[in-house]
What does this fold into?
Amino acid sequence: MPALRCQLVLAVKRKNLMPDLATLLQLAGLLAKLSIMSVGGGTAALAEMQRDFVSRGWLTPQQFLEAYAIGQITPGPGVALVVPLGYATAGILGGVVALLAFFVPAAVIALVAARAWSEVRRSPWAATVRAAIVPVGTGLTLGSAYTLARSGLQDPPSIVIAGATFGILVRTKLPIPFVLAGAGLLGAVLTGANR
Amino acid sequence: MTAIDERSPTSAAETIPETPPCMSLRQLARVFLWLGTISVGGRSASYIQNEFVHRRSCVSIEDYLEYFTLARILPGSTGQSVAVLTAQRLRGSAGALACLVPYVLPGGLLALFLAALIFGVERPAWLEGALHGFSIGGLAFVLATTFRTARAVRLSRAGLLVVAATSLAYGPLGLSLVPVLLGFGVLSLILHRPRPTGAASGAGVAVPAGAGGETEKSHA
It folds into this structure.
């Protein structure tokens, strides 16, 4: 644990704690634009995001992949993905600015849309839209699950972990964090066994 | 997925009652703080579904799917938009506002901590394995929730056709979201357009095809 703390302190010291205002403004503007562009999910603008960050010289392609990996293991909605990007660009303040710039515009649009939809969803035409939208949503859910499974389950350890976790989640009522912690433990063990 | 009788004369607008609030604002914020802390695996909306549809039965599966599809049209993270739409349904605009910060904050703080800790640093193999196992566990959770959705949702025959076509196009065929949403959304609207019920209802009331059964399940 002291080694971990030491590593953290060194990592933070490596970053510039007071980045220049111009970089922060550019970062905020870019992520606000990407937030509004990302129709279909937070990762919809991923390719555009990589192009922008790499072409500006803020991150290397490898650093972008590492930031993406951090976003994947972080809980909550996909917005946390931008925090490591902001951190790599402009330190701690960059991470905070990135989160706010990516989160706030889409949140405001969602709030307005939710209010508007709640007012019209009981009208007769909205009932038709509801009847039509549910099968599309079900199809998107099934299609997303297929894509996720195909890209994530490519090696035997991953298939074993996913199979065991899926079986436990469907057949038992164990708390999800415990099941996920078990999956993490199994991952550490299987990695050790493969070495 | 269960096929329902499409000839049901019940009007959807008539059968939707006002849902009484199933929790206070404070409880709602607390639940979203918890969901924001545990929802790993890249599909945070599945955790909202699990909590409000399956565990607490505050939201019907059809309502959730409605919010999920709307969220896919809105910009930004799908999980964030589903959270806002769900909270708006449960506690109005105050609920939508109350859920946002607790939902996003834990992940944001953890991402900042992890970025400072492991960005550009060589990670030991066991830690790499544990992080990978954790992510795969999250993926399995998404699959388990999808399995529950497929078992719970009730659709008309036209609805089942749209599900099959949409999932095939978006999954195995890998078509992008916008054409899939537009194409199958319009197809679904045509298939579910209001039709005169004729002799069945005796009044000739226009009813969205398949809507009756879905709303009966929604608010049973």
